[in-house]
Write a structure and sequence with these properties.
With about 450 residues, the chain is of the alpha+beta class. The protein has helices at about 25-30, 30-40, 65-80, 85-105, 170-185, 190-200, 215-225, 230-245, 250-260, 275-300, 305-315, 320-325, 340-350, 355-375, 400-410, 420-435; strands at about 5-10, 20, 50-55, 55-60, 110, 115-120, 125-135, 140-150, 155-165, 380-385, 390-395, 395-400, 445. It has 16 helices and 13 strands. Strands 5-6-7-8-9 form a five-stranded antiparallel β-sheet. A four-stranded antiparallel β-sheet has the order 1-2-4-3. The longest helix is centred in the middle third of the chain and has 25 residues, at about 275-300.
């Protein structure tokens, strides 16, 4: 198999006899060659049809022609075409020269499409010029990144400025270099200067946002470790632990141990924070009362039957103002991260409504749905999934709160012909099947267990 691509016979029964699969990076960086390969194959003797089905996949029909002959012809063409100097390559090189002309006075040296300024043994500034294809091989863009590279002792790279513009727009490129790249890199001439900004959690990116994002906090912590300031580093790693997802935490704990930082504070399960474990315990204790409250406000028996779930789903379709009045003054039990990473991201961005009464509605329905699942699949327990979502686990496991929240959001105020009340029972059926399915080990942490 070639590094860039491979030719093989297609499966039987297809419309085409052969397929070319390109390496994903090659398909991205040399989209022009991939497009030209379509034309080359179409003109090759014995090829009767060609279809560029995906960015990195070309199918073609050449029945009766040996695969080795097709591959050899394509290899000879590809090597010759790849050696050609294309106009976009010359334009990219001109852009690199333009950047060098602007930054040379600041001590930068050019190395092809990279320009570097070594400030000391720990810190280097790097400006990189890259060509990108647009939506078609005829669309070209220029990308410029300005990075700080630290040796801690292994290299750590962090981008402070990113710019993308038209390949031939030298005025815009010059403005980005003089107005953004040079000032942003000059603002962090030493590691000490970076630490001064990080001390107040101000980003070294050109935006200077406060607080910086979690990825930058990790770099801050690594620099502190390199300076022997382990207590300060531990505090940052503790914050990182509490903001990250349970599935990510084992890697963080291993890193902290490897760096010689004191152990972080965790719950009895090292995958959970103390607050998460306490919230999960409180939720388990709260569910009987939650089901009782739901029975009270709905007037339904809620006897664990499939019919009771249909009745509950029908009740959910009440107008929003009536539900809001019903749950006025009742506080939700579960914080936003218990809705799972994706739903929480939608919450933070404002893409979904997240008023307290909606949360209480979802929590009460979740408590009852969980009771139904536990009744039908004995041994099922509440837990926390790998992305932080409230989940259920037996032999298998699955998140539940985000599913109920999404279902309730669609049901509330929906006309009878717009929402099928059987969907809640269908979700219960799925939950029972998922927690009973041991083919895929669940990433769910339950109380009193060390986790996956």
């Amino acid at each position: 198999m070639d590094e860039e691509w491979s030719v093989s016979e297609a499966g039987r029964g297809g419309y085409m006899s052969h397929v070319v699969v390109f390496d994903e990076c090659v398909a991205t960086d040399r989209a022009d060659l991939v497009a030209d390969a379509v034309e080359f194959l179409a003109a090759l003797p014995g090829v009767t049809a060609v279809d560029h089905v995906e960015r990195e996949v070309i199918e073609f029909d050449a029945r009766g022609v040996p695969t080795s002959r097709l591959s050899g012809a394509l290899r000879r063409w590809w090597d010759a075409a790849a050696a050609e100097q294309r106009p976009w390559m010359a334009a990219t090189d001109r852009a690199a020269r333009t950047v060098h002309d602007l930054v040379a006075a600041y001590g930068y040296q050019r190395h092809g499409l990279r320009l570097t300024r070594a400030l000391d043994g720990e810190l280097t500034h790097v400006v990189s010029v890259e060509h990108h294809f647009g939506r078609s091989p005829d669309d070209h863009a220029l990308a410029l990144t300005a990075d700080v590279v630290l040796c801690l002792p292994e290299p750590q790279r962090f981008t402070v400025v990113s710019y993308t513009g038209a390949l031939d727009d030298e005025a815009a490129l010059a403005g980005a270099v003089t107005g953004r790249v040079i000032p942003a890199l000059d603002a962090v001439p030493t590691v000490a200067a970076m630490l001064d900004r990080w001390q107040v959690k101000r980003s070294i990116e050109e935006s200077g946002r406060r607080p910086y994002w979690i990825t930058e906090g990790r770099l801050h912590a690594r620099v502190l470790v390199s300076r022997g300031r382990l207590d300060e580093a531990r505090q940052l790693y503790q914050e990182d632990f509490e903001r990250s997802q349970p599935m990510q935490r084992p890697h963080l704990l291993a890193l902290v141990e490897r760096l010689g930082v004191a152990p972080l504070t965790t719950a009895s399960s090292p995958h959970l924070t103390v607050a998460e474990e306490a919230t999960l315990a409180a939720w388990q204790a709260h569910t009987p009362a939650a089901v009782g409250l739901l029975r009270q406000v709905t007037g339904a028996r809620l006897d664990g039957s499939r019919r009771s779930l249909d009745e509950l789903a029908t009740w959910l379709s009440r107008p929003p103002d009536r539900l809001q009045a019903t749950f006025a003054g009742i506080a939700p039990v579960l914080p936003a991260p218990f809705y799972g990473f994706r739903t929480w991201d939608d919450i933070r961005s404002g893409r979904v409504a997240f008023e307290p009464w909606r949360r209480v509605t979802a929590e009460l329905v979740t408590a009852y749905l969980g009771q139904v699942v536990i009744r039908r699949a004995h041994g099922t327990a509440w837990g926390i999934a790998g992305d932080g979502e409230l989940a259920m686990v037996r032999r298998g496991g699955t998140g539940v709160l985000s599913r109920v929240f999404a279902l309730a959001d669609q049901a509330i105020g929906a006309p009878g012909d717009r929402f099928d009340p059987r969907r809640l029972g269908g979700l219960a059926d799925d939950m029972v099947r998922w927690v009973d399915d041991g083919r895929y080990p669940p990433w769910v942490v339950r109380l009193g267990m060390p986790g996956p």
